[in-house]
């Protein structure tokens, strides 16, 4: 399991979640996919230790455990992973 940042973060990029992450796996960036630009924060699924500290810190409720994602945000699992593929 990993945590995933979703649509409410786009354009907001409040970094409260970054400051509480004990493994520094949350980063700001841009992904262009399917004609849409995602300018937001991303969680590295390979580094996330599933501690959950980031979720309550998000002021726009954009962070979910990957097992608890609302249906409309399921594609953000792959989007977060894709951001780190070329890093």
Q: Can you describe this structure?
A:
The protein is an alpha+beta fold. The protein has a single domain, classed as 2-Layer Sandwich (Alpha-Beta Plaits), CATH 3.30.70. The strands form two sheets. A two-stranded antiparallel sheet has the order 1-4. Strand 2 and strand 3 form a beta hairpin. The chain is globular, with a radius of gyration of 11 Å. The protein starts with a strand and ends with a helix. The mean pLDDT is about 95.
Feature tags:
two-stranded antiparallel ribbon, Alpha-Beta Plaits, alpha+beta, globular, 87 residues
Helix vs. strand class: alpha+beta
**How would you spell out the order of helices and strands?**
EHEEHEH
> The CATH topology is what?
Alpha-Beta Plaits
Overall pLDDT score: 95
Separation of termini? 21 Å
Q: Can you count the beta strands?
A: 4
Rg from alpha-carbon coordinates: 11 Å
Instruction: Tell me which CATH architecture applies here.
Output: 2-Layer Sandwich
How many discrete structural domains? Answer: 1
- Helical content (DSSP H or I, runs of 4+): 10-25%
Shape: globular
| Main sheet record | 2 strands, antiparallel
Side-by-side strand order of the widest sheet? 1-4
Quick one: CATH class?
Answer: Alpha Beta
Q: Provide the β-strand percentage band.
A: 25-35%
Q: What does the secondary structure layout of this molecule look like, with pairings?
A:
Elements: E1 3-5, H1 16-20, E2 26-33, E3 36-43, H2 54-57, E4 63-65, H3 76-85
Antiparallel strand pairs: 1-4, 2-3
